[in-house]
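Appendix B, example 12.
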Amino acid sequence: MNYFQAILIAIIEGLTEYLPVSSTAHMIFVSSYFGIQNDEFVKLFQVAIQFGAILAVVALYWKKFFDFKKINFYIKLACAVIPALILGKLFDDKIDAVLGNPIPIAIVLILGGIVLLFIDGRFNHPTIANEQDITIKKAVTIGFWQCLAMMPGTSRSAASIIGGMQQGLTRETAAEFSFFLAVPTMLAVTTYSLFLKTYEVSQLKGYELLTQSNENMKMFFIGNLVAFIVALLAIKFFIGIIKKYGFKPWGYYRIVAGIILLFYFSFNK
């Protein structure tokens, strides 16, 4: 992977992490196009730069994250992230097996787009417009919905937002809670990938892959910086779009993008 590819992947991560279009799918498609997806450092990089996107949410909602008087906020996030921690560990190897094949991911992208076309009409009687009114039970339920995104192409954002709307949250509240939930979820995934996971081919830990060369380290820091800046813009953009148009635009985008990518990778194996 060169610097151009690293920056492009980081832009895609920052742009799509909080949109219901699957950042993992988009990064895999681009990496597959360049022929670098099977490189272990690239796989680590795709996960590690989520840290930059995490910081974007913390920066935008810093009053929420650093209001230590509201302990219930932290309890709800801690409870909601537990399903992903457990199931993510159990299915880690199966997830890795799918990451190298863009065709099933394109199919999931299309199917998820079809679902998004009907979400606004299905959950159109929200009763919760404030994060403080989300109970721990509802938070855990949203956490289980988030686990659907373990299949690359689903979108963690889409799964958790749909879960929030199914639990009676307004579109905006569901989106914001999805952002909040992303912080502990992605922090856990990034930490696991860097310090606990042993990569199959090299038999190295993530941080060992990262520190193999100065180039890897530079790409890691540049990638996180780019992902942070782009995610700041994407979050504000997304909130404005769903307030005005709902989820249909993202559904159409997923379907069109998924069909194009499905045909491309089917004929360019």
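The radius of gyration is 18 Å. The chain has a mean pLDDT of 88.
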